[in-house]
Amino acid sequence: MQYQQLLTSLLIVAIAATSTAGASGNQNVFSQPASDMPSSKKLDFMVGRGFFKRLWVTAPASTQAADGLGPLFNARACMSCHPRNGRGKPPSSADEEAISMFLRIDIPAQNDKQQSQLKNHKINNIPDPVYGTQLQHFAVAGHNAEYQLRITYEEIPVKLSGGETVNLRKPTYHVINPGYGPLHSQARLSPRVAPQMIGLGLLEAIKEEDLQYRADPDDTNEDGISGRINQVWSHEYQKVMPGRFGLKAGIATVNEQSQAAFANDIGISTPLFPAGAGECTDKQQKCLKAPDGNSAQYDNLEAPAKVTDLVNLYVSNLAVPPQRNRDDKDVRAGKRIFNETGCGSCHVSTYTVERYGKQQVIHPYTDLLLHDMGEGLADSRPESVANGREWRTAPLWGIGLTQAVSGHSYFLHDGRARNLLEAILWHGGEALQQRDAVVALNTLQRDQLLKFLESL
After folding, report:
1. Helix ranges restricted to H, 326-414
2. Structure confidence at residue 13 as a pLDDT band (50, 70, 90)
3. In Å, what is the CA distance from 269 to each residue of 155, 210, 304, 306, 431?
């Protein structure tokens, strides 16, 4: 099948999936095209959606346009981890597969060369010699999956000012049935739940000088907030750039984030990551020697540039729903409390960006910076500049629609928080003062704060 035939077939799939039912506030609200996207790109947006939803199959297959899955993988499609472009979740029981959650893995630098690579930001992490930098819990026929994920929880009670008690759940992660022998003795693991997809192109459009203006790594203004920019190697631009994407801001651009997900999550080769075996390591020779979907008619790749460009356009132009009930008196009161308690110090509300030749004001509620979130949320796994206690400030836009889109209300990097209040109560480190201020609120004030967040 040639490119034109391929695009035509994907267009048919895309058009069938463009129903706007519920676009004003239900399941499809995160799947709408951005209003600033030129009309000339609407067709490409729909085709990109088709590729985002595509289920990849094992090579060799009757169609070379859709084969090359794995051999090791976490999902068969982008949409599997980001259903309706929303947020993933941890498994709800020991028997449920972790479809939209996985474990990252690395080890400390073992020699001077690796230390130099980390220092110069040429790599973010040193891979486990057998398992790489990500554990894949599925494999194609004839291969072993790398592990099974199991999570156990410990309940931690937190007293609020009115006498109420909130039980937080502290997770412990278990690698069950490692498929290629034991993990490295110094292996460090970090859980990841797939984040929502809206507004990525707008976050990429925030000026670097705006990030630098907000950064205060030495807390020179003595406000207790010392956000800093992650510095990462861009495979796309072949230079060190500010990290913006990923839960520790470990990737510089939307395009690279998407291509890395193709390679690591699905095992699909792309222009930036051309290995047909995905993330298979030298210690997994059977995996490296397995058939792949790299073919000459597709630039010796499984997802060539014409595919990844369309996916990049799609995920860069998913619209952010407008705030709801902004004139409600409790929402207005909650916004005032949000700022008075200092939440807006990191969850910065407003930027002016330029996209498609036009300026616009956006409200992502993030500074895209790394912050020490305390020992409670620490994963002990660095990522380039980010240390084991630091996380990127999560954007809050669209957060109130999580239940409608994703069918759950799990938050934070590993979905441990079962609602927004639990997410706040897990804040520590630089955000401890803000967390304690929320604990000290009376019941009405806390309800107003949550109502504001739910309006975003």
Report:
1. 329-340, 402-406
2. very low
3. 42, 34, 8, 13, 40
Which residue reads 């230390």 in tokens?
A: 115
**Residue 374 CB partners (closer than 8 Å, separation 6+):** 389, 427, 428, 429, 430, 431, 432
β-pair partners for 397: none
pLDDT over 80 (residue 214): yes
Cα–Cα distances (Å) from 244 to 183, 203, 235, 381, 391, in that order, read 30, 8, 14, 18, 11
**Measured between alpha carbons, how far is 397 from 455 in angstroms, rounded to an integer?**
9
DSSP labels, 62-124: S-TTSB---SEES-SSHHHHSGGG------SSTTS--TTEEEEEEB---SHHHHHHHHTTS-S
What pTM was computed for the model?
A: 0.93
Taking only the tens place, the pLDDT of each residue in 243-300 is: 999 999 999 999 999 999 999 999 999 999 999 999 999 999 999 999 999 999 999 9
Contact assessment for residue 277 and residue 287, using Cβ atoms and an 8 Å cutoff: yes
**What is the percent of the chain with per-residue pLDDT over 70, rounded to a whole number?**
95
- Cis peptide bond N-terminal to 83, omega within 30: no
Give CA torsion, residues 374, 372, 98, 74, to 10 deg: -150
Region of 177 (left: φ > 0; alpha: ψ -120 to 50; beta: rest) is left
Q: Is the dihedral of CA 428, 434, 440, 441 positive or negative?
A: negative
Q: Name the residue with tokens 């060539």.
A: 304
